[in-house]
Design a protein that fits this description.
11 strands; Rossmann fold; Arc Repressor Mutant, subunit A
């Protein structure tokens, strides 16, 4: 059974989420602080972690950063804060998705299922693709730049592989949301933030990308 850790300081919201997730077939358990959540995840790792941003003590952003340093668990922010700055900051901290309260449990469950379907090894038997000094091996689940390993998250890896599979072709943000995130509709900022993070890792000059380029009004493409 898929396990979900809910890090939420509001007792009523946390309990409501736990009960709703259990009705959806998940094994769910909660934590009222970031510190408690981090400890529980280290001791008994969940398959997904839901994190509120406004936590007492250690806030949600730092909680996400520490979770991400420990492992590659899918992280979804569940917060009442819907400001673009907060969404971008949470994604840059390492969250995979962002859901604004009040939460529609069916939508949240669908997103968790989509996250669960993602894996690091995308396609067996596919040869590594080379873009200058950048090498992407879907089968091995590896990215190398100038021969050195590049540390990428699960979502960044799938995004890079999707763009590599369609090298030279422009993919719209909505196409990438469907193919990488498994969402029929979603917030396009998810794509933009992850592209920005990838550029920091794979481009010699992220401000003037050579391989992962933007086609204004159209989307992104990976070029040799």
């Amino acid at each position: 059974m898929t396990a979900v850790l809910v890090i939420e300081d509001d007792d009523r919201i946390r309990l409501a989420l736990l009960l709703a997730l259990e009705e959806e077939g998940y094994s769910a358990y909660g934590a009222a602080t970031a510190e408690e959540g981090l400890r529980r995840q280290r001791e008994s790792p969940a398959d997904h972690v839901l994190v509120d941003l406004m936590l007492p003590g250690l806030d949600g952003f730092e909680c996400i950063r520490q979770l991400r340093r420990d492992d590659d668990v899918p992280i979804v922010v569940v917060s009442a804060r819907d400001d673009t700055h907060d969404i971008v900051a949470a994604l840059e901290a390492g969250a995979d998705d962002y859901v604004v309260k009040p939460v529609a449990i069916k939508e949240l469950s669908a997103r968790l299922r989509a996250l669960r379907r993602r894996g690091r090894v995308v396609t067996a038997g596919v040869p590594a693709q080379v873009f200058g000094d950048l090498e992407i091996s879907a089968e091995a689940g590896e990215v190398r730049r100038a021969g050195r390993p590049v540390a990428v998250t699960r979502t960044e890896f799938r995004l890079l592989c999707e763009l590599a599979e369609h090298a030279g072709r422009v993919l719209s943000r909505q196409q990438l949301l469907r193919r990488v995130w498994g969402y029929e509709t979603g917030d396009e900022r998810l794509v933009d933030v992850h592209v920005g993070r990838l550029r920091q890792k794979i481009e010699p000059d992220p401000a003037n990308p050579r391989h992962l380029v933007t086609l204004r009004g159209l989307g992104y493409k990976l070029q040799r």
